[in-house]
Structures are given as C-alpha cells and as structure tokens.
Amino acid sequence: MNHARDLRIAIVGAGLGGLTCARVLQRHGRRVTVFEREAGPDARPQGGTLDLHADTGQAALCAAGLLERFQALARPEGDQWRVLDPATAEPLAQQGPPAGPDRGLEPDPNPGPGPDADSDSGARPEIDRGQLRGLLLDSLTAGTVHWGRAVSAATPLTDGTCRLHFADGTTEDFDLVVGADGAWSRVRPALSPAVPGYTGVTFLETGFDHCDTRHPDLARLVGHGSMLAKGAGRTLVAQRNSNHHIRAYIALRTPQDWHTAAGVDPGDQQAVRAHLLDLFEGWHVSLRRLLHGGDHPFTSRPLFVLPAPHTWRHVPGLTLLGDAAHLMPPVGLGANLAMLDGADLAHALASAADVDTAVRAYEDLMLPRSTRAATDSAHALDHLVPATAP
C-alpha cells in the first residue's frame, strides 16, 4: 500500500461535498484530483440558498479553515421564516422551522423560521449555493479541478485500487475513488444497485429579480428570510437570495408527469400559469402573485430519493459521499451532510494507517448517520407538503 501522502485520490464531482473533501485533504498535505463533467464553474446556475447548521455544514467549513470567510458572506437574517395562512396571508401564531428537524429547502435549489418567534434566529445563516461553491473552489490549489472530464463508470480492481472510465474513452487508476457525483452518480453502480425513486412531490421553481424595487409587495411578504404557506397537497415557498433576488417554489403532490395529466405543455408558460392558478383557487391574492411567475420561467424539479437505509458492502478503493450515497428530500440536510461527509472522509484518510482502514472508519460513521437523516427528511417532506390540509 502506498504511503498515505503518496495516495492517488480521485473525487468525482465538484459539488459541495467533493470540494470540501478536497480542501480538507489539501490542508493535511494530501494530493487529490477532482473530476467534473461541467465545462467550468459557471456552466450552469447553482440553485438557491442554503442554511448551514453548526454541527454539520459549519463544522465542515471549520475543518476546511473557511468558517470566517463563510461568515463574511453569509446572511444571518436569512434564517427567518414567515409562515402564513393560505386564505388570509396573515402570519400564523406558530412560526419557526416548517419542516421538523431542519430549517431549509435546497434542491440544487432550496428554504429556512419566523422573524418574530424564532429565538435562535441567525444560528443557521444562509448563503447562496453558488457563493459557497465559489468559496470552496477558490480555496483549492490551482488545477485541482479538471473541468470537462465526465466519468462514465468506475471499476474496482483486484489489487484494491479502482479504475475510472471517462466519457472520452480514456481510463485512469487510483488508490481511492470518491463518488461525489450526485443523485445520478456514475460511480455508485460499482457499489450498489440502488437507483433514485420519485417521492411524489414536484417543485416548480421561478425567480424574481430586484425584488425590493420591482416587486416590493412580494419583498414585504417574504421578509428577510423565507415565507411558507401550505394546504392539502400544495405548498408555496419563497426565499430571499443575495442581490435582492427572491426564489419561489410551488410544491405539489402530483404524478411525475403532472403536465400530461393536466394537458399542459411545460414549455408554455401561460398554460403553466393558468394551471397553477386553478390549483391554488381560494388562496390569498398576495400569495397567488407567486403563481403568475417572475423574471424567470417555471422550471419543473421532481424530487427523487434513494432507498433508506441505503448501504453497501465495503469495496476497497471506492466509496461515496453526499447525494451519491444518501439522496434525500431537499429540506435542509443534504448539502450540510455532504460537506460533513467530505470533511470526515478527509480526516480519516489523513489519520489512518492505510486507505482501507480510513474508508471503513468513514463508512461506519457516515452510513448510520445518513439513514437517520433520510428518515427525518422523509418526515419533513410530509410536513412541508402535507397530503391533507394542515
């Protein structure tokens, strides 16, 4: 086995978990290469805002030596929620976390409790996902991320190493491959046959730019953080992002092909708008303004999850983190856990005598933790989008 400092470590996926792992490894003097299929850091929008929890996301940033830089970018006031009555748009008496153990939503998008009733408001400050990813990318040694390098598969080898197969037909061998490549991971099939399944909930996302000047009524409705109103099988969420942007989600319990059943072309924004207005008939006019759409078209985001528990038999030279390991509903835990996974794996690799011992220790810690979180997140989604009127 190679000396720990000479290990050939590959991370597949330049998301938050993979980048956290790479950063902590480099802080410990370890070499690492990150392979990302996207052409560059600005190839696509990175989604909405995240609330980072002290014992997970913030702990990972502390391990990465980036907590102070995060605090300079974060918005403590974004940890506020306004929970409104759907018929009157009046604040409900019970403010606070709308989804059980978490404080936010986050589908490569996401949300966070009540400005008047939440005693620890600001304990889980918000940051735009793109800003957080940029912070992690800027912290890495130049050239760590190899952009435009799509991985098609991973093959464990008999000597305990792992071979990566790239979309361009080339291969490379590593002492450890870390699958941090998200919901539809190309690495996961080497460890597990599990595939994500549809939750029965779809988010339709839109956005409002320059909200304080162009959409002042909406800005007041949302407040400094996020706003939530829910009914039977349908929920409205709107959240402040940086640069005076509001991101809105219309959450529906619906078949994945909702547009087919409704006879709606999802590319026809007027038809989507009319369908949503019908679904939310009787809701207060101030809330229905979200359904008219904003400065960005409606984007359909069906929510998928991996089975829980999702486990695998240990395979030398290969492991998973983040959504590749434990895809769960986007209710505030996923990004936090991915970052903690990355930090925990890096610490194990830096301290264990050999890579296999390190990976076993990491998996023994991560897998039970992710099972508990997946169960909590499933309950939180049921609370966020209840099947019956709350």
Automatic annotation (TrEMBL):
InterPro entries the UniProt entry points to: FAD-bd, FAD/NAD-bd_sf, TetX_monooxygenase
One GO cellular component term: cytoplasm
Main enzyme class: oxidoreductase
Required cofactor names: FAD
Record region (Disordered): 91-126
FAD-binding domain location: 318-362
GO MF: FAD binding; monooxygenase activity
Subcellular location: Cytoplasm
Highest taxon of source: Bacteria
Chain residues that bind FAD: 51, 129, 323
Residues binding NADPH, per UniProt: 44
Gene3D superfamilies recorded: FAD/NAD(P)-binding domain (3.50.50.60)
Record field: transmembrane: none
EC code(s) of this entry: 1.14.13.-
UniProt similarity note: Belongs to the aromatic-ring hydroxylase family. TetX subfamily.
Record text on subunit structure and interactions: Monomer.
Domain-level remarks: Consists of an N-terminal FAD-binding domain with a Rossman fold and a C-terminal substrate-binding domain.
Function of the protein: An FAD-requiring monooxygenase active on some tetracycline antibiotic derivatives, which leads to their inactivation. Hydroxylates carbon 11a of tetracycline and some analogs.
The protein, known as: Flavin-dependent monooxygenase
Origin organism lineage: Bacteria, Bacillati, Actinomycetota, Actinomycetes, Kitasatosporales
